[in-house]
Structure formats: C-alpha cells, structure tokens
C-alpha cells in the first residue's frame, strides 16, 4: 500500500469515529508499531539516498498529519466524556471551580504601609502628575538651568522646547501644594519617577519615591528626627538606631543623609532630608523669617528590598508571577 492509499483509507476510517475506544483502535492501526506507515518508515534504511529524501519527507508529513487528527479528536471526545454540560447536562455533584486569589505587588504593599504610618502621624497623603514642567521639577526648587545639580538627573524630556518632562522626583509637589495652601501642614507624596540611569541590581529608569514636607512656625530637624524614628520603628517593627550625615540638596539647607543601623551592625543610607531652602519658600511667596520646615524623600523600592530581602530592583518590573505570588 502506498502513502496516498494509506492516507485515503485512514481519513475515511477516521471520519466514522465517534468514541474513544474506536479512536484508540484507529491510532494502533495507522500509527502503531505494526502499521503500514511505520513499516514504510523502517524500510527507509534499505533505500537509496534519493528514495530516502523522497519517501521519507512524504511519510513523515503524513505521520504528523495523522497524529494531529488523532490529538484533536482525542481532545474533543475527552471533553464531551468528562464535561456533562457539553451534552446539555449539569453534574451537581462536581466541586465548583476554585477562584485563584490575587496578590498585591510588593511595591503596592509597601506604599500602602507608608501611607498608613504617616497618616497615623497626622500627615496628609497627596498625589501629583508624573508629566511635569521644568518650572516645577527644577526652577522653583532652586535648580535653575545653569545649576550643576541638574547633572544629577538625566531626564526623559517629552518636549524640551515647552519644558515638559517625566518627573525625576516627587519634590515638585512641594511647590504645587505650597502655592495653594498656607502653613502649618504636613504631607507625604508617594509616586512614580523617571531617570535615564544605567539599569543594574540597584538602579532602574522607572522607580517610586515618597516625598515628605512639614512646614510651620516652629518646625525643626528635631521634629523630623522624632517623626522619622517613629516611621522606621513602625515600618521595621522595632526601634532602629538612626544617624544624620551632612549632605547637599539644592532645595534644602542644611541637608542631611539619613542612615539606619541594622542588626548586622551595618549602617545603610535610607533617605535624604533637610530644612527647606529659603529660596524655595520665596518661590511660593512664604515669609522665610516666619515659617520654616523640613523635607525628606526615600525610594519605595529600597525599603521593599530591605524589608523583604529582595536582591535585585529589576525583579519588581519583570512581570514574573513567582515574585508576586509570595505576597
């Protein structure tokens, strides 16, 4: 029997099958070890190279075609066999489908916890635009065009002529909020930021920050030290030793880096902070002789990495559900 005859006979027989036992008989007859097609494939060893190419390709193609027919009908018949509803019946004894539980992203969990802690400390939670203007992102924060501090940010410009960019920090909301509100107040601003940075285990072009700002007539770094100590105590579930180191930020003076000491004895920088610069108050028409305040900012990814022992910041944006399902 040649390949064409085998195919015609197999297809004709296949079209008459309507149950699983007959389908299995068909498989043994046309795809089994003793089938005509298998015998043809075995006989190729004795053929010439030309015959092997000619017959071998045709025989293998036929075998794949028959296997596909078998798999499709096997699936269809099994579905009908095990799914009473497909035959118009309902199996009331069959257990219901379990609904898979969703999981919050670790960054969402950490951001929610930050909001909760600062709300307890009487801070209002404020949101702001990710598409910012150069005016709010730099100029009004004491970072004019010729200021060397601009070199700290490689920026995603949307329209440089119009001064539109993706914000490099959440600090612009300091200005936006102070333009519309009078002291005293205390706010935090969590949100996503963007910088053109080399991506590695601790840096990403897309990341999240939370900004804090407290302004009043008698606000000092002592107030900040108490508030931030309370925050770390609640976030890490234990009292943490903290220290301030002198630093520089264009929008604060004096400026400090905030380090936290962990059980291993290692100090780790967690956030930057400082007293709001008089030029920033001038930008929003506050009297710098009457009001003073502190500002601070920290990376949400960094806190999540520390809290959950996540070694690589890129995992947060990988889309790998194995990470998400742990939370």
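-> sequence recovered:
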């Amino acid at each position: 029997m040649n390949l064409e005859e085998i195919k015609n006979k197999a297809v004709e027989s296949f079209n008459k099958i309507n149950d699983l036992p007959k389908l299995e008989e068909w498989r043994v007859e046309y795809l089994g070890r003793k089938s005509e097609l298998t015998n043809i494939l075995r006989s190729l060893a004795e053929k010439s190279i030309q015959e092997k190419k000619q017959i071998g390709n045709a025989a293998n193609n036929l075998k794949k075609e028959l296997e596909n027919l078998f798999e499709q009908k096997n699936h269809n018949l099994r579905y009908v066999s095990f799914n009473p509803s497909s035959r118009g019946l309902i199996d009331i004894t069959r257990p219901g489908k379990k609904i898979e539980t969703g999981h919050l992203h670790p960054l969402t969990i950490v951001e929610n916890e930050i909001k909760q802690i600062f709300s307890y400390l009487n801070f209002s939670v404020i949101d702001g635009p990710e598409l910012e203007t150069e005016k709010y992102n730099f100029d009004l924060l004491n970072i004019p065009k010729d200021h060397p501090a601009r070199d700290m940010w490689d920026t995603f410009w949307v329209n440089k002529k119009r001064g539109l960019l993706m914000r490099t920090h959440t600090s612009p909301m300091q200005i936006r909020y102070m333009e519309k509100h009078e002291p005293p107040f205390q706010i935090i601003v969590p949100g996503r930021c963007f910088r053109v940075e080399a991506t590695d285990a601790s840096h990403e072009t897309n990341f999240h920050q939370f900004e804090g700002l407290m302004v009043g007539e008698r606000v000092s770094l002592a107030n900040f030290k108490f508030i931030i100590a309370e925050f770390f105590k609640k976030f890490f579930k234990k009292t943490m030793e903290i220290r301030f180191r002198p630093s520089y930020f264009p929008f604060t003076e004096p400026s400090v880096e905030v380090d936290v000491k962990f059980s291993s004895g290692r100090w780790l920088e967690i956030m930057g902070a400082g007293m709001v610069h008089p030029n920033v108050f001038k930008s929003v028409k506050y009297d710098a002789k009457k009001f003073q305040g502190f500002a601070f900012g920290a990376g949400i990814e960094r806190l999540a990495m520390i809290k959950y022992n996540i070694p690589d910041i890129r995992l947060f944006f990988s889309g790998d559900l194995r990470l998400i399902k742990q939370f």
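The chain has two domains: 3-87, 106-324.
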